[in-house]
Amino acid sequence: MARELSEIKQQITDEWINNETIQERYELVPGQTFEQQFSKVSIENILFNVIAFAIWFFEKTLDLFRTEINDEIAKSRIHTQKWYREKALSFMYGYDLNDTDNYDTTGLTDEQIATAKIIANAAPVKMQGYLRVKVVKRVGDELAPLSLAELNAFTSYMNYVTDAGTYVIPTTDPADDLKLTLDVYYNDLILAGDGSRLDGTDATPVLDAIKNYLKSLRFNGSFIESKLEKEIEAVDGVSMVKVVGAWSKYGSYDYESTINPNAGKINEIRIADAGYMKIDEANTVINFIAFNDE
Amino acid sequence: MRTTKVQQGQTFFDSVIETTGDVTNAFDMALANDISVTDVLFNQMDLVVAGTEKRTVTQLFKIQKPATQDNDETFNEASNYVFPQVLPFIL
């Protein structure tokens, strides 16, 4: 685990002020701390800050490296959910497995491989008696469901590479619709009553923040109301946000559905059935209220 | 997901300080943008803002944005840099 930046700096400065030669040359008072004897803007303090930052950064990089290696190990352990995800992502549309469970990519260019790997994201979900794998492809910048032909090929592939006895049912659906009712308290020096920026650089900064938040969610990750509030509050000119209500729907369910825990009114957290959500702009209501907290 | 545009003369660290107010967010931001902290940025490049914001600091940089990669060649050359005095500096 990486140490805290302050801990590293403390170690350096302790060593520094306890060094006899340094004490003599700087005429330091024994027993006093580094902070008591050196100014915050002294070159010594700045140098130690920079050195401590470099060491801290390196330690953080090692932490990240360890996490990535653990992740690689987890993926290579067969029959875990991560392994199923990796297998799904390795699918190449239009290519034969030739009786193995891996594609032979000899002679193919990187571009050909990238084009054939159509699965943009996958999430295995354990169900009663089978494994559901939610999959999507990428069209331009957006996620989209697979076509019927692609889904059929993918279903055959998954049931071929997984072990005997595991029944995999891939599903691919359009994004779940998200309906919001928001109260947005804004600074009227920056935003107008319709939510656009007064300087004219952006007509819908709040809506863009919502879209960006939905895009930043992990595939099959949780939509969390309070995190959305934080994202919108980070928009320049927005003072405060309250999610008055949030609803989602998919398939034949509607926003008022109460029979399915994955559709209808959202109680803080929701995992989209398709694995991803999009904002239903026509039904979303954003009330802009001028408010200056000064 | 908040984004920012790199301004003329800004290094990655300038951008981190401007948007989050704390240099320790450099790690999270480098990760979010899949770049190295020492990468050379270009003007108007989009960066994803990550980490925890220190509003008291970011407020200071709303108008005067930090851009330490000055155009003055004398300061850009690392070999030209010398300490203003000889250590130790007694304040």
Spatial strand arrangement across the major sheet of chain B: 1-2
Order of helices and strands of chain A: HHHHHHEEEHEEHEHEEEEE
Mean pLDDT of chain B: 82
Terminus-to-terminus distance of chain B = 44 Å
How many beta-strand segments of chain A?
11
Distinct helical segment count of chain A: 9
- Residue ranges of chain A: pLDDT <50 for 5 or more in a row? none
Number of strands of chain B: 2
- Shape descriptor of chain A reads flat
Low-confidence stretches of chain B: none
Q: Largest sheet of chain A at a glance?
A: 5 strands, mixed
- Shape by Cα distribution of chain B: globular
Helix content of chain B: 25-40%
Alpha-carbon Rg of chain A, integer: 27 Å
Q: Report the sheet-strand fraction of chain B.
A: 5-15%
Task: Give Rg of chain B in angstroms.
Answer: 15 Å
SS-derived structural category of chain B: alpha+beta
Please identify the structural class of chain A as seen in this structure: alpha/beta
Order of helices and strands of chain B: EHHEHH
List keywords for this structure.
heterodimer, A: 294 residues, alpha/beta, 5-stranded mixed sheet, 4-stranded mixed sheet, 9 helices, flat, B: 91 residues, alpha+beta, 2 strands, 30% helix, 9% strand, globular
Would you kindly provide a written description of the structure presented here, covering whatever features stand out?
The complex is a heterodimer of chains A (294) and B (91). In chain A, strand 1 (119-127) and strand 2 (130-139) form a beta hairpin. Chain A contains nine helices and eleven strands. By secondary structure, chain A is α/β, with parallel strands linked by helices. In chain A, the strands form three sheets. In chain A, strands 5, 7, 8, 10 and 11 form a five-stranded mixed β-sheet that branches. In chain A, strands 1, 2, 3 and 4 form a four-stranded mixed β-sheet that branches. Chain A starts with a helix and ends with a strand. The longest helix of chain A is centred in the first third of the chain and has 34 residues, at 43-76. The mean pLDDT of chain A is 90. Chain B is of the alpha+beta class and 91 residues long. Chain B has helices spanning 12-20, 26-33, 55-60, 73-76; strands at residues 2-5, 46-49. Chain B is globular and about 45 Å long. The N and C termini of chain B lie far apart (44 Å). The mean pLDDT of chain B is 82. Chain A binds chain B through residues 5, 22, 25-27, 38-39, 42-44, 53, 56-57, 60-61, 64, 209, 212-213, 215-216, 231, 234-235, and chain B through 1-3, 23-24, 26-27, 31, 37, 49, 53, 83-84, 87-91.
